[in-house]
Amino acid sequence: MTRKNRGPRTAAPAPQGQLVQQVPGPSVEAFTFGDPVPVMDKRQILDLLECPVQGKWYEPPLSLDGLARSYHAAVHHASAMQVKRNVLVSTFKPHRLLSRAAFGRWVLDFLTFGNAYLERRDNRLHTAMELQPTLAKYTRRGTDLDQYYFVPGDGQEHTFARRSVFHLFEPDLNQEIYGVPGYMAALNSAWLNESATLFRRKYYQNGSHAGFILYMTDPAQSENDVTALRQALKDSKGPGNFRNLFMYAPNGKKDGLQVIPISEVAARDEFFNIKNVTRDDVLAAHRVPPQLMGIIPNNTGGFGDAAKAAAVFNANEIKPLQQRLTELNDWLGEEVVTFEPYVVQSDGEGSTD
C-alpha cells in the first residue's frame, strides 16, 4: 500500500435544497422589573407665548389648566397662596354686594392665575344687585376688550353682558390682555419638589431601592429556571416587597447569581437636598415668612419672632394686595372692598398697624 498525501479535511457540501442546522450558542438576556412610571412633563405650560384669537375671544398666554394643576404640585406653593388668601379674607369687611365667601374665591383666583373676575348682576332698574366671581380658569376676554365669555368646554359658551365683568389682573411684560402670576420663576422648583416626592414614594414602595441589575452567569440554569425567577421577582414588588425569595441552583457557583444595586446611596441623600432647595425657591417667589407657614427650622436659633415677621409681611405683601383689590371700588363707583387692620396677638396684645 502506498501512503497518499492527505490535505485538511473539509465538510462535505450539503445537498442542494437542504438547510444546514446550526446549534445556537448561549446568549445574554436582559429584562426589567416593575411597571413603567408615567412622568408628566409640565414644561409645555411655557410654550404659549402670545394671546391667539379664538373666534370671538383671546386665549390666555399660559395654560390655565396647567396653573390649576400646579397649584397642588408642592406643599409650600399652595400653602403660601392660602396664607395670603386667609389673611385677606380675615381682614375683609363683607358688603351687601360682595360676601366673604365670594371675596375669598375671587382672591384665590387672582393669586393662582394672576386674573380674577367679578360679574355685576343688575336688577330691573339697572342698579347693582350683587357681585359674583366667575372662575378665572374658564373666563375669556373678547376681541372687544369690554366683552367677556365663560367657556368651560367646547360648545358651552356663555356671553356676559357688555361691561358687566370687572377684570383684575397682574400686569405682564409681553401683553396687556391677560395677567400672569408673579410666581412663574418658581414653577420649575415646585415641579422638581413634586418629582422628588413622587420618586421617594416609589422608592419606598419598591423596597427602598432605586432598582438593581440581576446578573446571572451560572451555565447550570435552564430557560425554565430563568422564567420562574423572573416571575418570582415580579410577584415580590409593591405590597410584597418584604417577602423573602428562595432559590435553589444545583451545581451553582458562588458568584453565579449577583444583585447589583443602582444609585441607592444617591437616591437616599439627594432627596432632602432637593426638598430644601426647592422649598426655599418657592417661598422666595411668594415672599411668605417660613414661620407663618408652619415650617420647622433646622437650626437651633429658629426663624425669629413670628409677630415681627407678620408685621413685615403685612407691610410688604398684604397691604399692597389690599390696595390692588380696592381697584374694584373705582370701577363700580361704590366702596365695596374695605379692610380692617391686620392684628397679630403677641404676649397678649399686639398689632401690625
Automatic annotation (TrEMBL):
Pfam families: Phage_portal. InterPro entries: PBSX_Proteobac, Phage/GTA_portal, Phage_portal_PBSX. It comes from Roseateles flavus. Belongs to the phage portal family. PBSX subfamily. It comes from the Bacteria. This is Phage portal protein. NCBIfam families: portal_PBSX.
